[in-house]
Fold this sequence. Notes:
Distance between the termini: 9 Å
Largest sheet: 6 strands, parallel
Strand content: 15-25%
Order of helices and strands: EHEEHHEHHEEEHEHEHEH
CATH topology: Rossmann fold
Helix content: 40-55%
Number of strands: 10
CATH architecture: 3-Layer(aba) Sandwich
Structural class: alpha/beta
Amino acid sequence: xxxxxxxxxxxxxxxxxxxxxxxxxxxxxxxxxxxxxxxxxxxxxxxxxxxxxxxxxxxxxxxxxxxxxxxxxxxxxxxxxxxxxxxxxxxxxxxxxxxxxxxxxxxxxxxxxxxxxxxxxxxxxxxxxxxxxxxxxxxxxxxxxxxxxxxxxxxxxxxxxxxxxxxxxxxxxxxxxxxxxxxxxxxxxxxxxxxxxxxxxxxxxxxxxxxxxxxxxxxxxxxxxxxxxxxx
Length: 232
């Protein structure tokens, strides 16, 4: 069993697309895969198939129904805000200890596991906890997804610094081409590589379908297995 946590430099960067691509590639290789999106903001049950949990279920080849959504994404909120704020609007709070326990239980299973975070590395998710706290508690390999938009280099290097400060050097960084990218993803990757020695930087162009084969998805699937072996 191997596990990977997919995070990003911010929201709407492409981490769900990347996660789905990894899941699809692992399934093509005949591996048993599970995926979780424990926290989801901006969730509309009327359009569950278009949500992040819905897309992950599609990648897993599972039905998109209330039971399956609840199974992989038990903390869902309507407002498209940081989870702590979205929960507050519904008179709720995110139980950080329960969130960590839920993920640890899944990590202990036999299937390969992909966990997708929410927002960016420092996004608040509970009263006194951020995404970074969540990842640090789990301690599994991390994949950072960024874009090629103006400012992505600064956001990426800031995220890397925050991760390193908690002992969470990413196994790889994926530069997912932004729709309004000021520079190419290749240029962005080359820039990041100068400041992040030892971290693999991969490029993913704009793609219409996460189920399509691509060298980056293949490399990440290879890494998924290698990182697990190194952690064992």
